[in-house]
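Our preliminary data section would be incomplete without showing what the modeling component actually yields. Below, a chain of 251 amino acids is followed by its predicted structure, encoded as tokens that our downstream tools consume directly.
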Amino acid sequence: MKYQIDTIPVWEALEFQGPCMLCTLRAKTEAGEIDRVLGASVMEPDVRVKTNETGICCKHQQMMFATQNRLAHALLMDTHAMEVQKKLQKIKTQAERLRESGGKPLTGRTQDTEIADKLRALTARCIVCETIATHMERYLYTLVYLWKTDPKFKQRLAQSHGLCVPHSADLIEASAKHLRAKERKEFILCCLRLVDEPLAEDEKDLLWFTQKFDYRNQDKPWGNSKSATERTVNRLRGYCLGDVPYEKPKK
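Predicted structure:
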């Protein structure tokens, strides 16, 4: 275990006290990866080769576009489009051979599906998603490791604001690889409690939010209900709504 590299980000995410420390880690990693790909690495040959081959998904295209770094974005997409064009020519050649063979037209399910699958494969991957997945796998291992070896971390995690459903599932899956049976039971129950108890509070606030629209409740205090929709969605699906779950660096 490399303490400086692997444990500090996990501790920082826990100390941020967001609704899910793994959502904090993922969102921060995602923002950092967007900056990296559009930054100086845009001119690094090894990065461009990977980007050209793999591409970038819709969500991360939107995030890149939102940075307003139009030149770097255009450079990435230009060479990626060239790579896609090369692959398209091979698909077209395959289709032409089928048409010119005098055989059945391209209506057979096998032929059509093969070409359609090759087209879909052109945009099926994302270099940002794949990099984030690599980082998150390491963070999951580190979190389980700290829970197992550091009593202070174990206590702080138990007292945190919880986990989202998807990341609790990821942690439970990771624990099967790194914990003994007795430890896994305790860890699983901890993860489930960190989902169930905060979700009950979120739902309670969400119900009150809906009831506030009844004229009979208009003069009653909102309490914590104004952000209940975002909190509930993020608890159920992982962070996707509202303010980013980490502290942005000051510029």
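Residues 23 and 239 are 6 Å apart (CA to CA). The chain has eleven helices and no strands. Preliminary results of this kind motivate Aim 1 of the renewal.
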